[in-house]
Design brief:
There is one protein chain. The chain has about 220 residues and is an alpha+beta fold. The chain has one domain. It is about 30% helix and about 10% strand. It has a 4-stranded antiparallel sheet with strand order 1-2-4-3. The longest helix has 24 residues. The two termini are about 20 Å apart. About 35% of the residues are buried. Bound molecules: iron/sulfur cluster (SF4). Iron/sulfur cluster binds next to helix 6. The site of iron/sulfur cluster has 14 residues, from helix 6.
Length: about 220
């Protein structure tokens, strides 16, 4: 996908931003997103109770990676930062329910699905960067500790070493306190709660979400 660096300007060009967001929307679909929406940043719903769910019940990934709580950006910090941004691209990718439900037999497919989400996020983030939105940033789904370093003993970044996947790994939306479920429903899309007791036959489909805050 095109990455021709565009000269950075001082004035914000609303018409250009609208065209670019539409281009990113098409790119995200091309990269495998199922549904994509251009949103205002005040539609990004941040709620401290989301990161509470990383601890109660305690997620097996809690504290395990540099991009997961309590090591990443706090909801209050994100809320404040978002006030400086205007537009974002929010997307979901549908995942068959037998893959999304935690089961050792489908772990490869599940990890690949999460990796696909990070790919969409980081590709669009990079496109935005080269288009001059140099403060753009993306957030994925799940945990990079399991998505990229599942076979490694630990998180390299937490040991003070270079992250093994700096161009792909990002915090997830939920890790920084975004109420992904509510945002999906607010967008008019569908999501079901999928916990450890979920049965694939009871869930029509799973979804994973990602977001790129552009400007
Ligand atoms: S080293 Fe692995 S677990 Fe740690 S931040 Fe990078 S991708 Fe995530």
């Amino acid at each position: 996908m095109e990455r021709k660096p565009r000269k950075i300007g001082l004035e914000s060009d609303e018409a250009q931003l609208a065209r670019d967001l539409q281009k990113y929307q098409a790119n995200a679909l091309e990269l495998g997103a199922t549904r994509v929406k251009i949103i205002r940043t005040d539609e990004i719903l941040v709620d401290e109770r989301v990161t509470l769910k990383c601890q109660i019940p305690r997620c097996f990934g809690y504290g395990g990676g540099a991009n997961c709580p309590p090591n990443t950006l706090k909801p209050a910090e994100l809320r404040e930062l978002l006030q400086k941004y205007k537009r974002a691209l929010f997307f979901v990718k549908e995942i068959p329910s037998n893959i999304i439900v935690r089961d050792k037999a489908t772990i490869k497919e599940r990890v690949a699905a999460y990796q696909d989400v990070y790919k969409i996020v980081t590709e669009i983030e990079s496109m935005a960067f080269y288009d001059g939105y140099y403060l753009a940033f993306g957030l994925g789904a799940g945990s990079c500790r399991h998505t990229f370093c599942g076979l490694a003993e630990d998180c390299a970044a937490l040991k003070g070493e270079k992250c093994r996947f700096p161009l792909r790994a990002r915090p997830s939306m939920e890790a920084v306190g975004i109420d992904v479920y509510k945002m999906i429903v607010s967008a008019g899309w569908t999501i079901y709660p999928i916990g450890s007791g979920a049965k694939p036959e009871e869930i029509p489909c799973g979804v994973l979400a990602g977001i790129i805050v552009v400007q």
